Amino acid sequence: MKSLFLLVAGIASLCSASSEPVVSFNSLKAVEASINDKLRSSINDPYDLLGTARGTYLEGYGAIFSVELNLLLVSAPNLLPFNQKITETEIAAMRERKLRKMDLLRDSMRGLMLGASKTLTGLPAGERIVMETFLFNYHWENSRGLPHRLVLTAEKQKLLDASALHLTGAELAAVFTQEEL
Known about the structure:
This protein has 5 helices and 5 strands. The N and C termini lie far apart (57 Å). Mean pLDDT is 88; it is low at 4-9. Helix 2 runs antiparallel to helix 3 and helix 3 crosses helix 4 (156-165). The protein has one domain (22-180). The chain has helices spanning 2-18, 25-40, 88-119, 156-165, 169-173; strands at 48-58, 62-70, 128-135, 149-155, 177-180. It is of the alpha+beta class. Strand 2 (62-70), helix 3 (88-119) and strand 3 form a beta-alpha-beta unit. The longest helix has 32 residues, at 88-119. The protein is elongated and about 60 Å long. A 5-stranded mixed β-sheet has the order 1-2-3-4-5.
């Protein structure tokens, strides 16, 4: 009897090992593509996407997506042949532009996560969607007051509810846990 139980348990574990994960690889890839497209599409003042988005699923926790970018599409001053020195005025202007773009980035990340909640159909409602953005700054920039990482987290069901209720602004922001490091 004990050997029959072990045989059935072994077969069950083999069957579960070969089954499709809760969150499919294709749905993770779809969210990654959505993140890349959105962050590349800012035509007037584009982000500099330094690496494509990567997503993974952690069973029992949720789906996590990360991306690295520079808030501004700029070149290091030593790479510009006709302008070998960047002025303090230019550095201050870049810092102000980056500060303004932080709000736009937060809004974009929230929108992307709302979309991901619909795309990740296999993700259980009680698990989370996390988006982490690593922010690049050149050594010569004034990055005081700018985070190096922005992490937004929200439960999938709360995102679905927010989307159905068409929450905007502060109501939508309240759905997310935000961490800036």
